[in-house]
Amino acid sequence: MVIPLFLFYLSGDPMYVSKYNIILDVDNHTEKILINPLSQSIDVVDEDDEVCAFLKGAGALENVKGSDRDYLLQRGYLFNEPEEEENLIRDVIRKDDREEYPCDFLLYPTFHCNFRCTYCFQSELPKYSFISTDYVNKAFEAIESISRDARAESPLLYLFGGEPLLKGKKAKETITYILQQACNRGYRTAVITNGSNVQLYSSLLRKYEVEFIQITLDGPQHIHDNRRLYANGKGTFNNIKKGIESLLGSDVRILIRMNLDSQNIDYIPEFADFVYESGWDKDNVTVFVGPYRDLLCRSYEYQLPEHVMLERMFTFYQENPATRIIKLLAWPGADYILHFLYTRELPPPRVSYCISSYGRFGFDAEGYMYACGNAAGNKDYAIGRYYPEVTLDEERVRMWRKRRVETIPSCRECELAFLCGGGCTLQSLLKFDGEKPFCPEILQNLKVAVTHYFDEIVGD
Ligand code: SF4
Ligand code: SF4
Fold first, then answer.
1. Are residues 163 and 233 in the same domain?
2. Ligand nearest to the CA of 353
3. The pTM is what?
């Protein structure tokens, strides 16, 4: 993965090849795609070009035409000296430090859930009862003061769980209170739910102008009901469908997420047909697939490599245009190329992997605070408490908030560093005690995406 540091001398002038050049083969094309995420450059190179051989360390600088050399320098694939690249890195880090990042907040009213999904990653969490009003008030005090410090004007508050939209008086009263409080303070709100009781909550969600809800539906009913079950073993599909339909055409945006793996990927065309037949091809609905990720590093029998699923999705898109109603979300590497296609610019260099390194705060029902939504409930990874008062554990805060590519030795030397940002902190902690990074499948996804979008990347 690491391209060694090359220093070449031409007519007495040293030249330095960037550590962060990525050269990608493109299936069925002789050209290659050259990317430098630090310099934000992307270009097409002929396979037999001397430039390519040179950048790979297999050719001599003397063989590269003067105009090409100038172009490589101008695009930041080549520097006059290593210090130029170091200065660029320092600038990028300084900019990241100065940037004001949006804060977002996750409130976990409970870790209890009315489902027993076959792949649940929260099944071992303690099932406390519903959060008390006293704790909710303290969480709002903390959110108020964090938002003020961060100068966040209308922070986004997610209701998460467990399942936040449970049946029962206590659950409904608490959720009503939380939405009321958020609304009074001018916060934006969103709900991450299994979808089974959305129908019971739909008027409340509309009343308090919840911005969006995310509901998981794992494919057509005969697949979904095998994976996402009630505690009594019954399927959940029909109630989720009713919930979605209770919000169709409202101002609440509905995100329908399908967790993709080998058990349901074959059913994408059938699911796309179902979306159309159900009339869900509405402006306020987005259906998308995210790769199933084994966040707790257990072995999961239906897990597939992300790039294999991505390739399959692209094949569906080509062979069956109706499947394009099912979008892609959270596919690192492919996201990068999609950003380029929408804007014709590469994203800024990424120095951290996710929002857990910036301004995310999760609040559980026991008074603990977390930097990562998926770490919630595991007190070993809490960054502090918000009840009775906000107290942060500085060492834990550093562990999450200061994790950046330049502080992780193997990332600093990795060609993908400024595209990746250092990988998921939680997986690094769970799998390697934080001693080394957990590399996402970014390079493989990138290669699949540049192959699929080659013509659009090249443009006219
Ligand atoms: S640390 Fe990992 S699991 Fe947590 S928010 Fe970031 S990417 Fe997701
Ligand atoms: S986590 Fe990302 S930047 Fe770090 S070594 Fe792995 S792929 Fe490279």
1. yes
2. 1
3. 0.91
pLDDT digit string, tens, across residues 174-198: 999 999 999 999 999 999 999 999 9
Residues 80 and 107 in one domain: no
Is 153 within 8 Å of 103 (Cβ atoms)? Answer: no
With a 6 A CB cut-off, is 374 part of the ligand 1 pocket?
yes
For ligand 1, whether the C-beta of 356 sits within 6 Å is yes
Residue 440 belongs to some domain of the structure: no
Residues with Cβ within 8 Å of 223's Cβ and at least 6 positions away in sequence, in order, are 263, 264, 267
The DSSP bridge pattern shows strands 384-385 and 41-45 to be unpaired
pLDDT digits (tens, 9 = 90+) for 366-399: 999 999 999 999 999 999 999 999 999 999 999 9
Domain count, the chain: 2
Instruction: Give the whole-angstrom CA distance, residue 372 versus residue 351.
Output: 17
Domain of 177, in residue numbers: 103-331+354-363
Residues 197 and 278 in one domain: yes
Q: Is the CB of 109 inside a 6 Å radius of any atom of ligand 1?
A: no
Residue closest by Cα to atom 4 of ligand 1: 372
Residue 269: which CATH number? 3.20.20.70
Query: Are residues 238 and 326 located together in one domain of the fold?
Result: yes
